Structure formats: structure tokens, C-alpha cells
Amino acid sequence: MSYELKPWHEIPIGSIVTEAGSSKINHTGSWRMLRPVLHTDKCTHCLICWIFCPDDSIPVTPQERFETDFEYCKGCGICATECPYDALEMVPEMEIKLKELEELG
Ligand code: SF4
Ligand code: SF4
């Protein structure tokens, strides 16, 4: 198969972000399929997950990590893969939502 390379000005425009701050409006966590569930008993607060999170969705201080910011966490699972202490478990959102509904009665 061969491809014809186009000059830049012939490439169709895909999308344009016209204003700054769009990440404040678009809560990327809404498309998450898997949720990183934190097992606090295993977490040593080494902050490795924070270093790897591509969405800056793990709030930390230099000494401590806090619960994930689910408004923006996309559920990519990198944090769970990189955690050296198995303190993060990727759980299907549907499973969590059903459990929450059951608890409501
Ligand atoms: S990488 Fe694992 S042990 Fe380290 S702070 Fe994150 S969840 Fe806790
Ligand atoms: S699942 Fe991905 S986006 Fe969410 S906290 Fe982990 S690394 Fe960040």
C-alpha cells in the first residue's frame, strides 16, 4: 500500500480549541470505564502514581497522596500498573455504580 503525502496546507482541520481553560469545562472523568480504587492499607505514599498520571488527577503533598480526582481521571490504569505496592486496583465503573445503587436500596 502506498500513501501520498500532502503538504500541511492541504491537510483538513480536525478540531480547534479556541479558548484557554477548556479542561475546566470538559470533565474528562465522565468517559472513564475503569476506576482506580485505592487500597489505603497498602499505600506507602511513595507518590510514584502521581509522577506517572498523565492527567494530573492525583492530588498530593510532598508527604501524602489523597483520593484520585474522579472529575478528571480517565481510567487509563497507568497509576495501577506503576504502583509498586499493588495499592491501586482498576475496577469497572459499572460494577461500582451497581453496588452504589444496591446500597441505596
Ligand atoms: S504508587 Fe501506590 S503506594 Fe505509591 S502513592 Fe501511589 S498508590 Fe500509594
Ligand atoms: S487511571 Fe490514569 S488518569 Fe486516572 S489517576 Fe490513574 S493514571 Fe491518572
TrEMBL record:
Its cofactor is [4Fe-4S] cluster. This is Pyruvate synthase subunit PorD (Pyruvate oxidoreductasedelta chain) (POR) (Pyruvic-ferredoxin oxidoreductase subunit delta). It holds the Pfam family Fer4_21. It is an enzyme of class 1 (oxidoreductase). The keyword Glycosyltransferase does not apply. Keywords: 4Fe-4S, Iron, Iron-sulfur, Metal-binding, Oxidoreductase, Pyruvate, Repeat. The lineage of its organism: Bacteria, Pseudomonadati, Aquificota, Aquificia, Aquificales. Its EC number is 1.2.7.1. Residues 34-63, 64-93 form the 4Fe-4S ferredoxin-type domain.
